Amino acid sequence: AQKVTQAQTEISVVEKEDVTLDCVYETRDTTYYLFWYKQPPSGELVFLIRRNSFDEQNEISGRYSWNFQKSTSSFNFTITASQVVDSAVYFCALIRPNAGNNRKLIWGLGTSLAVNP
Amino acid sequence: KAGVTQTPRYLIKTRGQQVTLSCSPISGHRSVSWYQQTPGQGLQFLFEYFSETQRNKGNFPGRFSGRQFSNSRSEMNVSTLELGDSALYLCASSLGETGGNEQYFGPGTRLTVT
After folding, report:
1. Which of chain A's residues have a Cβ under 8 Å away from the Cβ of B42?
2. Mutate to test the interface with A, among B26, B37, B43 (most CBs of A within 10 A)
3. Strands, E assignment, B1-114
4. What is the pLDDT along chain B (114 residues), one digit of tens a residue?
5. Best interface-test mutation with A: which of B55, B103, B110 has the largest number of A CBs within 10 A?
6. B53: which chain A residues are within 8 Å (Cβ-Cβ)?
């Protein structure tokens, strides 16, 4: 079975703190893609990053960084020096491109991040 | 480039009625996917269309249907509405068929069934 688990339902931090959002996935496929999306209060999901299963390089984009570890089936997301504008729900998702009729995004339940001034 | 647009943004319907939601993808995108988002179930995949053909379907009853037009615009229809259909319906577009392509989402249609 394919599954994405975001164990942290809600996180609250004070501005400028670093925060890590956890994502653990399950799949038997060797080819898959992982995604992170941000959903601010406005409701529109915003694409943050895509990573394929053959690329375990970590990625940094400004204050955002991602740690992909196949050994622990995790794809964690860290925000450095958080800001109030980072307050949102963050979703991790998995897709298996070779899954035929089951080729669809499997979503975690999301982590609601509140960054307080 | 304009983003994904969805109309209407808000909708209130009564049980038993039917509803049609519309989605216009980003120009050049040929794939459109629909999702239902509820507090209890999270994001659930409804269906994906590519070049006017349904490519994949999620585990929803036949009351949920969709179609895609030659200009890639898509509509989804829900017949015989139930209270449990109250949700945010999100449309996403991507260049090619959903696989490794990133999807770009619209603002959603908030459907309330009373």
Report:
1. 107-110
2. B43
3. 5-7, 10-13, 19-24, 31-38, 42-50, 53-57, 64-68, 74-78, 87-94, 104-105, 109-113
4. 679 999 999 999 999 999 999 999 999 999 999 999 998 889 999 999 999 999 989 999 999 999 999 999 999 999 999 999 999 999 999 987 767 788 999 999 999 999
5. B103
6. none
